[in-house]
């Protein structure tokens, strides 16, 4: 008889009311002291343990909690504090911990980067001068706390050494093998102490095993897990993969560990295929990730049970299965209980972290007893109701999308001929200057929006306020002498929310927050129904701005792929189809702008890369449909209409072909923040369309000098055609103040003039 165990892989740390964020920020602002911070955070931690216990979870993760980020925790546990923070060894002070994450007066923060294909950002470990030492045993502390305070026999969670090393960077470079040898004894020490303390299961997270694993990587993994098995044989290690199917399945499942965790949601096809082909060792426990840890929808429990049985049937010899989410629940909001502002069909279809625990429990009860708990019928009903909702059968959209997905979406003429007509139309100078879209969202702008939202201001009054801001900034831009103007985006809080609020098919939660980085949380919109254009969204403000000036004003839209990648998306149809639906709605907006006389239109795609699949082999298919979605939005305009796009803060070098394939007349790309690295990519690949490389970083109030920008421009012009080159900042200016923005743009305009003169 097989045994089933319910488990969780990690719980969101922010708390139902974002108490975690509030406590840490209060500490940073000096409102509470360190002792109080510890008290408040341990309350949150214990509440979450208790909650998981009450929900019937048998293997409760401990050590997944953090004061900022779980990767930074491991860095600090090994004493790997970068030298600039002047740490002398021993326990790392909390002030140093936060300084690594956020910087201080004398040292810059460590780099922050996206955690695999999620919107969570971790602090990149820097391996360099310092030798590692064990400064404390973080998972052990958590294990002891749960046991002594709550009587919970927790399952310590650690980031795997292989993944930790893969995510690290060297100063200037490092050998992964050498560092593995340095860290392995310390890592083993952590595990040995856990074993001595009586821990049984330990979850070791190795998501890097789903990306690509070279022969050398595999050897390293074998070395690490071989050593662990030898040194701490009494520990039941669950090697956990997630976000996709495991690479090198056959070798990974033969590692000397007690259990292997696989993701049967995001890696379902690949993992099932591997199970069928290679089986699963009879002496090991399989952790079966059945509940989606990346999305907010209820699980179809009867269907999940069928999958569970199918998996169990594939490995008849196994005696133990762990029922668990696909990954840590860190990536979903805490509780759906407060979501009473949504249509009931939607509200009932949600499962945030707490509700997902109920689902795990229900599946495990069903597996153990053979009876289906009440939640089974409830989940089926809710999902059937959602599936039958009118929002999901917008015939016109569906038909239009199925037609468009098999047709090419191309401009009516090629760039070389469009370009001449566009030049004749606008007669812009060489090296035209422009900005990315937003101007300072000052406290005043935000306060005005608040007053309007609360009903203190009428819509009329708010519109007047926005109009006055637009006018002010059109005047400023004319005064500075920019060539292509923008209206400033004062009416928008967030570039996705603004459009989502106006498009049928989107909904917004009250408390659906997830941690993005540190204490910054985001509340992604839900895309639940067919997305459709309803009414013009940006024409009023843009046309008003254009009426104030004879210079061109760019219309400003957020692109379909960015809207998709920054939302929680329905899972009944493909992401590709949803992207095309959004793209068609945006096409109508583009056409409405054109109709209103706005014939330079920018469609921003800063998050194009965020949907990048983890496995290299899947990337070209994604890029193909992402590019297509952009072109669906932008290809029906007249040849004299100039399409712009914008991208920022990501790796561009391996997707220049796709960027070019967007066929945008002009792209503006962030370049200065990443120290001009992008320029090198153009040495080998010339870019044949209009392009503006950001000439200054917009993240600091510092006003860049004319000389700096002239230098940046001349570097760029060594590899790019001056006839196609534009001059703009790295990104939008919404986080800046007015004074510094005006000063920086003045310098930018004179830098452009000087560069023109020297052509
Ligand atoms: N148009 C947007 C702005 O200027 C673009 C923002 C972005 O790239 N994230 O704010
Ligand atoms: Zn940007």
UniProtKB/TrEMBL annotation:
GO terms for molecular function: methyltransferase activity. 5-methyltetrahydropteroyltri-L-glutamate binds at residues 18-21, 114, 520-521, 566, 610. The active site is at residue 699. It is an enzyme of class 2 (transferase). Keywords: Amino-acid biosynthesis, Metal-binding, Methionine biosynthesis, Methyltransferase, Repeat, Transferase, Zinc. Zn(2+) binds at residues 646, 648, 670, 731. Coiled coil: none annotated. It catalyses: 5-methyltetrahydropteroyltri-L-glutamate + L-homocysteine = tetrahydropteroyltri-L-glutamate + L-methionine. L-homocysteine binds at residues 436-438, 489, 604. Catalyzes the transfer of a methyl group from 5-methyltetrahydrofolate to homocysteine resulting in methionine formation. This is 5-methyltetrahydropteroyltriglutamate--homocysteine methyltransferase.
């Amino acid at each position: 008889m097989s045994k089933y165990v319910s488990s969780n892989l990690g719980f969101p740390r922010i708390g139902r009311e974002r108490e975690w964020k509030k406590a840490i920020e209060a500490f940073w602002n000096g409102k509470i002291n360190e002792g109080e911070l510890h008290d408040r955070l341990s309350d949150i931690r214990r509440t979450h343990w208790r909650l998981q216990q009450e929900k019937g979870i048998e293997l409760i993760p401990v050590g997944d909690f953090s004061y900022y980020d779980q990767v930074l925790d491991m860095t600090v546990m090994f004493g790997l504090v970068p030298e600039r923070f002047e740490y002398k060894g021993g326990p790392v002070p909390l002030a140093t911990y936060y300084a690594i994450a956020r910087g201080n007066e004398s040292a810059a923060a460590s780099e922050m980067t996206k955690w695999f294909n999620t919107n969570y950002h971790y602090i990149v470990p820097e391996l360099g001068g310092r030798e590692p030492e064990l400064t404390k045993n973080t998972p052990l502390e958590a294990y002891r706390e749960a046991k002594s305070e709550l009587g919970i026999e927790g399952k310590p969670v650690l980031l795997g050494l292989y993944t930790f090393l893969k995510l690290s960077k060297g100063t200037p470079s490092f050998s992964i093998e050498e560092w593995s040898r340095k860290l392995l004894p310390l890592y083993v020490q952590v595990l040995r102490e856990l074993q001595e303390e009586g821990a049984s299961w330990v979850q070791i997270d190795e998501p890097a095993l789903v990306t690509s694993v070279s022969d050398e990587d595999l050897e390293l993994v074998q070395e690490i897990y071989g050593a662990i098995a030898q040194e701490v044989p009494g520990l039941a290690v669950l090697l956990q993969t997630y976000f996709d199917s495991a690479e090198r399945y056959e070798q990974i499942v033969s590692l000397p560990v007690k259990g292997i965790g696989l993701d049967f949601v995001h890696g379902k096809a690949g993992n099932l295929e591997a199970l069928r082909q290679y089986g699963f060792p009879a002496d090991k426990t399989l952790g079966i990730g059945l509940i989606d840890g990346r999305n907010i929808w209820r699980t179809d429990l009867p269907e999940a049970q069928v999958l569970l049985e199918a998996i169990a049937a594939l490995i008849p010899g196994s005696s133990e299965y762990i029922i668990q989410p696909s990954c840590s629940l860190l990536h979903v909001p805490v509780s759906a209980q407060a979501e009473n502002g949504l249509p009931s069909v939607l509200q009932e279809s949600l499962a945030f972290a707490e509700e997902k625990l109920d689902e795990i429990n229900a599946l495990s009860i069903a597996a153990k007893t053979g009876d289906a708990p009440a939640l089974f019928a409830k989940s089926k009903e809710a999902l059937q109701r959602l599936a039958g909702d009118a929002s999901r059968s917008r015939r016109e959209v569906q038909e239009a999308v199925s037609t468009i997905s098999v047709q090419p979406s191309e401009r009516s003429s090629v760039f070389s001929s469009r370009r001449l007509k566009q030049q004749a139309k606008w007669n812009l100078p060489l090296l035209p200057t422009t900005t990315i879209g937003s101007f300072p969202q000052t406290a005043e702008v935000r306060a005005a929006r608040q007053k309007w939202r609360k009903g203190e201001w009428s819509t009329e009054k708010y519109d007047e306020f926005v109009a006055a801001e637009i006018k002010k900034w059109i005047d400023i831009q004319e005064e500075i002498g920019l060539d292509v103007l923008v209206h400033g985006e004062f009416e928008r809080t967030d570039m996705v929310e603004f459009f989502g609020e106006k498009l049928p098919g989107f909904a917004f939660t009250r408390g659906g927050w997830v941690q993005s980085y540190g204490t910054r949380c985001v509340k992604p919109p839900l895309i639940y129904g067919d997305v459709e254009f309803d009414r013009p969204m940006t024409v009023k403000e843009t046309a008003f701005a254009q009426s104030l000036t004879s210079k061109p004003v760019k219309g400003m839209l957020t692109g379909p792929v960015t809207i998709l990648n920054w939302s929680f998306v329905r899972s009944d149809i493909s992401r590709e189809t949803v992207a095309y639906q959004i793209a068609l709605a945006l096409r109508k907006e583009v056409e409405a702008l054109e109709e209103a006389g706005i014939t330079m239109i920018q469609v921003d795609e800063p998050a194009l890369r965020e949907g990048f699949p983890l496995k290299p082999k899947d990337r070209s298919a994604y890029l193909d449909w992402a590019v297509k979605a952009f072109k669906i939005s932008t290809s029906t305009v007249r040849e004299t209409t100039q399409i712009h796009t914008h991208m920022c803060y990501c790796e561009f070098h391996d997707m220049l072909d796709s960027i070019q394939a967007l066929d945008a007349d002009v792209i503006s790309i962030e370049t200065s923040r990443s120290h001009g690295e992008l320029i090198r990519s153009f040495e080998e690949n010339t870019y044949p369309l209009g392009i503006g490389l950001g000439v200054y970083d917009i993240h600091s109030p510092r006003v860049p000098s004319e000389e700096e920008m002239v230098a940046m421009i001349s570097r760029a012009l060594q590899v790019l055609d001056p006839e196609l080159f534009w001059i703009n900042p790295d990104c939008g200016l919404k986080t800046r103040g007015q004074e510094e923005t005006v000063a920086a743009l003045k310098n930018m305009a004179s830098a452009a003039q000087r560069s023109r003169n020297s052509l």
